[in-house]
Structure formats: C-alpha cells, structure tokens
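Worked example 2:
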Amino acid sequence: MIEQTINIEKTKSIANKEAIIVVVGFLGTGKTTLLKHLINNYLNEGWNPYLILNDYENAHLDVQQFKEQIDSNWIKALSGSCICCSGIHVLRDFVNNIPARKNGITLVEANGTTDACALSEFLGVGIEDRFLPPIQISVVDTKNWQNRGENNELERNQIQVSSLIALTHTENTSLERQTVVTNELQEINPKAKIILVDDIDVTKLPELTPANTTPEKMDHHKAHWASCSVDLPQLPNIDCIHAICKQIPKSILRVKGCTQIEGENTYTYFERTPSGEAYIRPFNGIPPMGSKLLTVGLGSEVSLLQNIVASSISNSHNQLSHK
C-alpha cells in the first residue's frame, strides 16, 4: 500500500512538470529526422512542444525546417557556441524563459560535436523546478557507428549518459551488423534502452529518468571544432551545389548552406553528410542571415570556402558555354 501511494505521488509529480528531452548524436546520424518524428507524434497526442536548436554556425537555417510543424514562436536557435560549456548558461536561460503551457514538452537538439557527458552534468543545474530533470536520447547511425576515425571517442562519449539510444540507418545494414552495434552500445551504456527510431513511443519518453552512470573522462577540447561561414551568391544550377560539396575536404564533416539558383525566386537548402552524400531540397521562406555556406571541421577557413565557391561557379559557366 505504501509503495502504491509513492508511485501515485511520483506520477502526479511527473504530470505537473514539463519534461526536457535532449537529442544528441554525431554529425549526420539523423537527429533532425528524429525531432520531426517526435514533434509530429506529440502534436497528434495533444502535446505542445517547444524546440531549441544548437549549431556552431547559423542555427536559424535549421529553424526553417520545422516551421511547417510548429509556430516559429515555439522555436529558439542557439548559434555560435557550444551548449556543453560556453553556451550552457544561454541554454539554461532559454529553458527557464519557456512559457508555461498545458501539456508542454521541451526538445533540445545539440550540435553534432557536443560533449554529451558535460552537457548532462551542467544542464540540470539552475533549471526551474517546473521542469523535470533533463534526459538524453542518443541517435546512433548503425551503418557508420565507430567508423569515425579519430572521432570515435567523441561518438562513444555521446551515448554514455543517455537513457535511450535510437538506432537509425538500419535499412542499409545486415542483422549481423545491427547485433554487433547493439552489443557494443550495451557494453558502453548497459542501463540505456536501445530501440529502432521508428519504434519510439513518445508518450513514454517523459517517464524516462536521467541515466545513473559514471562516464569515462574525455578531453573536452575534442568536442571543440573549427567552424566558419561565407556569403553565397546566386549559383548557376544545382550541379554547382554538388561541385561545392565535392570539393570541400573530407576533414570538414559538417557542410550546409542555403542559396538561390539563378532565375528562381525561391531558396534552396543543401547539406553534405560526413559520408560525403549531398542532400538538396527547397527552403521554406527566406534565410534570416542571407545566403550562406557553413562548415564545421578541421580546415574550415573562409578563404578555402570562397575559393571553392568561385571555382565551382566558374567551371559551371564554362561548361554551359561549351554546350
């Protein structure tokens, strides 16, 4: 009877407080796709999600991807700082200033190089009592897990203190590969639940509790990468975007941009994943910071990007003139 009373009180406590779900994971694992999935499901269940997006360069570009789902007043962009250290106080202020609302839930997308252990340690300090302790979901790319070379340690760090690990990109992997990855994840974080991203029940996420694990120490500077951005002129065609993505060195793991194609009134968004694949799609609206090319990773320098853009445009014009 006493145990039942305690459980009832615990349920009431959870019901009266807003959950904070932090989505972490290496670059290109599918964090944005997961967030869209969560937001759609929460809206269908009558919840009111609030979204905070973090990136080194111009997180406002990412905001546009969610405007068709939720009002822009319920989205905050945190650019130019690392939320696991220098940006943590800004993130706390963002959270504490979220309007109180019925059935509220806060979703935070950390940038792909975040020291997830440091973020977990510091975020819960100073959060108002109307929120539950933040919990982490790690997104793991099954195909590329621990194929990151010198960044393998960072990828392992990002799952150590997560309560749930969501597997993505399983459609292109064998059952043997999925078993190997699952076993490795369980060895690093035996207390986390591991699940396919499509099998997540959003109604159960607020009931998760912070992971009670002792993470391995990592040199925090390994989570601090070079980044930069340059203005993009109008580009001759889509092929020019592919050329830019191809010419940017592989040491630069994060590439994204938004620009106009000559003769078009709308904008085009593009990104290159760490595996080198380029994805191009229409951009919803006008980019608030103008047309930009943004990169994160070793070798991110303004002069390099400017030269690549100029070369790609010149080559594209030369090819058109010979047709």
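Residues 1-13 have pLDDT under 50 and may be disordered. DSSP finds nine helices and twelve strands in the chain.
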